[in-house]
What does this fold into?
Amino acid sequence: MYFLGIDIGSSSVKLALVDCETGKSFGVVQEPEEEMSMYAVENGWAEQKPQDWWRYVCNGIKKIKKQFQISKNEIKGIGIAYQMHGLVIVDKVGNPIRKSIIWCDSRAVEIGNEAYMGLGMEFCNNHLLNSPANFTASKLKWVKDHEPENYQKIHKLMLPGDYIAFRFSGSINTTISGLSEGIFWDFITDSISSDLMDYFDFDHAFIPEIVPTFSIQAVVSNVAAEECGLEVGTPILYRAGDQPNNALSLNVFHPGEVAATGGTSGVMYAVTDDFWVKECAKVNNFAHVNYDEKSVKNIGKLLCINGAGIQYRWLMNNLAVSSYEEMNRLAAEVEIGSDGVCLIPFGNGAERILQNKDVGTRIVNLNLNRHHKGHLCRAALEGIAFSFVYGFEIMQSDGIKPKVIRAGNDNLFRSEIFANTIATLIQQEIEIYNTTGAIGAARACTLHDHDYNTFSSFMRNDHVMTFVPLKDKTAHEQAYQNWKKELKLILNT
It folds into this structure.
């Protein structure tokens, strides 16, 4: 018997099958094989059709059943992970009123900034643990201000994962973790924030019913069964945004545990039970997957670095190299510090850790007579690693004290230079695991009865290696301080 995990990304939908008893992954499929369409009518906009997500989910279910030759009655539960902060609005029959305004759409930045001042910084920091910024609530206010005819049709608002759960079941509901990522949750009153709803003049009825993250949230309906190929009554047992879900995938649940991701963008996600925030302009704070109103008050403190893997990929595409492996070999031939070459990797838009400044990518101290592509490769790996360390220092100033750091076996963390640089500078081991968000979402189905021991056991065969910090960090520290000096010069210009 199997659990099905679904990860709704902005580039594709990934689906995974795992064994219910052992958690063993049987495989992952992707739909579509090429990237999903994204609509950008104006600069800074990013929209997708929720109906497309559902279509790719249905196609993926049929593909994975066929590939692994399983029948619909062998799938005993569904776990859903999804791109965070998106806005889906539906009418009374559940049809999307407009395209979804997704996570990377920046049209509502000023709305969020004004709300931070209007609601009061102290209120936002203490109650919402965030600035409203460019999150779901601010996007809904943009619709209210700019598309009043669409706003008048709204029956319910949803996050992307809520919409997929609705298409499976016909039931509209959400989670506390989801509401917190939309900045709708008040952590002091442990309820939907009436102050925020009233400030924006939103109808309180827009908010769906709340269900526990780990529970029988809904079941597959007759209509959905015909469309997706699952059995009627198959339960949805879990739902979470992609970053909390990535942390879950790495068995990160408790204060002091940290999950790291080195994909196109980089993420450090640390769990804490401390509601005190200092750096909410640079770091976000959301209810973790195991947050509940009664006893467990765990917060996921999320730091995002836009210019991470995309920087290394750009370099590969523009150097005379054939692979990341070749780049890593070239970099390994260069000593720590890249002979003075520094690469500032923030070339993927405004960076929250830099207070939303867009400084671009900079390569400095390049000597055309001394330096070659190996120096560029090492400087890139070190520069991205330094940005992680720089961000982690911000998290530490916000009260994070790491006990364990776990990371997925993705492109950046496959590099010893990258992982060793971070481990050495923060003096913390980094455990690498071979898992994905879709696999984690599937395994999370076992947690509907709160069996954390079984869930934890699923990871035993996933461990790839552990990076141990070097005792002598002098060379790394000198290189990092040189990098920070160059960054400071850029920020002060």
Remarks:
- The chain has 17 helices and 23 strands.
- The mean pLDDT is 95.
